[in-house]
Amino acid sequence: MVAFSIPSWFRIILLVLTIVSFLPQYYRIIKRADCSGISLTYALLNAAAFTEQIAIALFGVLRFDSDLYRPPGVNGWVDFAQCALACVCSLGIFAAVLNLQPERRGARAASFVIYVVYVVIFVGPVILLATAGPWKADEGMKGGDILVGLVHGIHTVFVDPILTILGLGAAVWAQALETSRRSSSPGALSVPGLGAQAVAFALLAICWPWRFDHGNSSGRDVLYWYRFFGWTYIHNALYAVGQAVLWWVAARRAAIGANGDLTILPETEPLLRSQATMGEPLNESR
């Protein structure tokens, strides 16, 4: 996973931008001390999809293809940190939803089990391969070539496309339904956070092609391109589009009620409740 064009300082800026894009969501969760309004399915599928990015990125420290492999330098490790950081931020939201959703205890337990099973079955073998010293030696992996190629193929041909295309799509659909069911306020879902993530990951998707050394890959087919390079472009692009869609849904829902009427903003709710307690009508004619 070695880049050749974008300088290190710009990669670090992208790293910081990723952190900043998640801060509004974390701030809203901490301020409210609950996660109502954030779909459990949305949090689970996002966590799984970003974890899959880490699984594939780990192959960057393995020598499994002589045409592409170069020992990872500073830029390569920064690129790996980019994938790892996005995964950690997504996992933090998933953990918050598991702990702070007021109801659905059974669903939360099931989601946690599903994620753990996924990590054990699919990510565990990748970690074992990445930490096996002899397969990272300069002389090559020897007997590990077939095993590494098999695991890499399973992830890049089957697991990653499913989680990236179907998983992220289902996550957006689940969150859009959750937001649409709410009368006005998006709850713990941060509308500015959705917009910030859409912008940040769109920029990441645009920049990723200039972070890889494509090596001797000219004339290869689309599947080859996706397996070794395209997986991260597509993931970041689809995630950016999904967050943009959710931003539009949440922003529209916060301003327009289910019947097309102007919705009361969350900041005005305490005042209106106090007026109702005092017996004052909410819509008093002059």
TrEMBL record:
InterPro entries: PQ-loop_rpt (IPR006603). Gene3D superfamilies: 1.20.1280.290. The chain crosses the membrane at residues 6-27, 39-64, 76-100, 112-133, 153-177, 189-211, 231-250. It comes from the Eukaryota. It comes from Anthostomella pinea. It holds the Pfam family PQ-loop. It is found in: Membrane. It is a multi-pass membrane protein. Keywords: Membrane, Transmembrane, Transmembrane helix. One of its GO terms (cellular component) is membrane. This is Uu.00g075000.m01.CDS01.
